Amino acid sequence: MVFRGRISLLVALVAFRPFARGFAPAPLPRHNEVLSRTSKTLSTFAGLKATSSSEESSLYNRSGSGSGSSNTRRNLIRFPVALLQLAVIGSQIHAPPPVNAAGAVGEKVKALTPEEAEVKFREGYKTINYLIANYDEICDGGGDNVRRYLGTIVSNPPSSLVGIGKAMKALEDRADDYIEYVETSEEVIKSINQADGSAYMAIFVTTSTSYTPPKKYFDDGLIEVKRCKKAMEQLAAMANIKL
């Protein structure tokens, strides 16, 4: 019974190997290779299973010497090995394919022309100005309402800040100082993300035991929105965009 318990433990460890790696599956073997390995392992497993029960029960009645006892021990060792091989093959067959972070297979990402990017940039800048001018009223609608204007959650129609990173990327060749332009672009994205985080925290504290009022987080978010506006104005000067 103890030996069977150890077998079960080994099988469980191998079967849950993808979870131990943080849901990152191992590279999948070729289909023919998997079928070949599965067939061989199943044959070994079937042969060992047919003899394991009788040999295991007779193992304790033998003196431990002689070919019979030696064969029994050998089979009892090969039996869990076969189980482990089946578990490994099973985890490889059922492992999910790696996620394609660039989007669905065959999906085309349309790059913006500098003219389109300029229009997109101006629209995003107008949204930032509107958010600042009407911030208190927008905050009355809750943290998610602020996040809709930031373009960090789905809205209908979508915020003009959705895809602002792609617009800034399309305009980078206009800048004389490429490094400064890229760093300022990163400041725009960073300020939007931090304002989003503050708006989310304003939602969270209303349902938690925290004594921090939502207004504190809304005020922090407004600071980030104003920082975003300043960074966008700097980018506009670098890319010769009239706001």
Radius of gyration: 31 Å
Q: Roughly how much helix do the residues carry, as a percent range?
A: 55-70%
Q: Can you tell me the residue ranges where pLDDT is under 50 for at least 5 consecutive residues?
A: 9-32, 59-67, 86-108
Main sheet overview: none
- The class by helix and strand makeup works out as mainly alpha
Total E-strand runs? 0
Residue-averaged pLDDT: 73
Quickly count the helices: 10
The gross shape turns out to be elongated
DSSP strand (E) fraction?
A: under 5%
**Whole-Å distance between the termini?**
78 Å
What is the element string, with H for helices and E for strands? HHHHHHHHHH
Annotation keywords:
69% helix; elongated; 243 residues; 10 helices
Quick description:
69% of the residues lie in helices and 0% in strands. The protein is an all-alpha fold and 243 residues long.
Ordered list of secondary-structure elements with their pairings:
Layout: H1 2-15, H2 17-20, H3 31-59, H4 67-94, H5 114-133, H6 135-140, H7 143-150, H8 164-170, H9 178-204, H10 214-238
Helix pairs in contact: 1-4, 3-4, 5-8, 5-10, 7-9, 8-9, 9-10
Question: Can you characterise this structure?
Answer:
This protein has 243 residues and is mainly α. It starts with a helix and ends in a 5-residue tail after the last helix. It has helices at 2-15, 17-20, 31-59, 67-94, 114-133, 135-140, 143-150, 164-170, 178-204, 214-238. Helix content is 69%, strand content 0%. It is built from 10 helices and no strands.
